[in-house]
Design a protein that fits this description.
The protein has an eight-stranded mixed beta sheet, sandwiched between helices. The chain has a seven-stranded mixed beta sheet with strand order 3-2-1-4-5-6-7, covered by helices on one side. Helix content is 33%, strand content 25%. The N terminus is likely disordered. It contains twelve helices and 15 strands. Strand 2, helix 2 and strand 3 form a beta-alpha-beta unit. It has 377 residues and is α/β, with parallel strands linked by helices.
Length: 377
């Protein structure tokens, strides 16, 4: 079972207010995934990012342009903080080639347009939005890409668009783009650099990708799959793409992929914090969710995937307990829970968000102690 790609210590480089930097810090701080922002570097001592980082207890280094371009200054600094990934979040200086080389494939930037449009030297922030409006564009968006030695030309990891209407001001466009930045940037960082890939006898559990949308629609459009789990059947490939980007981009959410065909046929993942379905769940506990296409029911694939996720939850993420909640009528899901060692804990009244009908939700729990007892040699 593979783990994350690189060490879990991030340096964020920023020159401005630092809203993206703060958002990334808070995102990883809220997850038991061993990833943290260990350093914020800025070239401006008066930048808002300094105050934001200091308020969150993250070390800040203010460096001059000369220092940033000095190998003897930067290399020991990165070593001192054990940096594995560098994130550019509104950093206005060109990163020196020696640093790009060291973090080749591990340095990422976000740009407020759909590259290659409106990129390059001097194109940042409101300047980009001004150019978008002046160019009569009917959409803009964000591009998250790896950093190369040329402005905004590194390999694109992710793009998302938002419409621009004729009445939009620069401020309107800025607000739309900023909302996408805050939502997607930490998730793409997590997926790209720190998401696990788990392998079982028949399955590969990996991050969802945009090109999975057609396969997702194929199985999620079936009315036998979603409604009993509390989500509506998908009605289009475009809707499935939206779900991949907005729902399945959550941390610790995996496509269940058949090794034989390479096709994703289901989904499994962990829910944290307020996304969990019961107040009984404590801070260092997560809730498991899963489903698989009807064609693959009864083949033991979800228990196989769940065993791998349980192992990751306890051995890698250090969770104290894992939970499963299910509609009392969902007998198949109940069998999966019991097969994988979960025991009944309690029942709560609820409502099916698809049908609006009142339901009884059963909650099953597996603690780290129970897991250890079950897996004694």
């Amino acid at each position: 079972m593979g783990q994350g790609m690189v060490g879990g210590r991030i340096a964020v480089f920023a020159s401005g207010e630092g809203t993206n930097a703060e958002n990334i810090i808070r995102y990883f701080r809220g997850l038991p995934c061993g990833v943290e922002v260990a350093l914020v570097l800025t070239n401006r001592g008066d930048a808002g990012v300094v105050r934001r980082a200091e308020c969150l207890g993250v070390p800040v280094v203010v460096a001059t342009k000369g220092e940033i371009n000095d190998r003897e200054f930067m290399m020991p600094l990165m070593d001192r903080y054990g940096i594995g990934v560098v994130v550019l979040a509104g950093f206005l200086l060109m990163v020196p080639p020696f640093l790009i080389g060291r973090y080749n494939g591990r340095m990422v930037n976000i740009h407020p347009s759909l590259l290659p449009k409106y990129g390059g030297k001097g194109m940042y922030g409101r300047r980009v939005h001004e150019a978008v409006i002046a160019g009569g564009e009917r959409e803009t968006g964000i591009t998250i890409h790896l950093v190369s030695e040329h402005y905004d030309e590194g390999r694109i990891l992710f793009q998302a668009s938002v419409p621009v209407v004729p009445t939009d001001t620069i401020g309107d466009v800025d607000r739309k783009v900023r909302a996408m930045e805050l939502f997607y940037f930490p998730r793409v960082i997590h997926r790209t650099f720190f998401g696990a890939t788990m392998e079982t006898d028949r399955l590969l559990l990996r991050a969802w990708r945009d090109d999975d949308a057609e396969a997702l629609f194929r199985y999620a459009a079936d009315p036998e799959v979603g409604p009993i789990a509390g989500w509506p059947a998908h009605t289009s490939v475009q809707e499935s793409l939206r779900v991949i980007r907005e729902v399945f981009s959550a941390p610790e959410t995996y496509a269940v992929v058949l090794k034989e065909s390479g096709e994703p046929v289901g989904c499994i993942g962990l829910l944290f914090g307020d996304n969990r379905n019961s107040r009984e769940m404590q801070p260092n506990e997560a809730e498991v969710g899963y489903w698989i296409g009807v064609l693959f029911w009864g083949q033991g694939l979800i228990p196989e995937a769940l065993d791998a996720l349980i192992q990751r939850g306890f051995r890698t993420l250090g969770l104290d307990a894992m939970w499963i909640s299910l509609n009392e009528a969902n007998v198949r899901s109940r069998r999966v829970a019991e097969k994988c060692g979960f025991t009944y804990h309690h029942t709560e009244p609820g409502e099916n968000p698809v049908t609006g009908e009142r339901v009884s939700n059963r909650f099953y729990r597996l603690t780290i102690g129970e897991y250890a007892a079950q897996h004694k040699a």
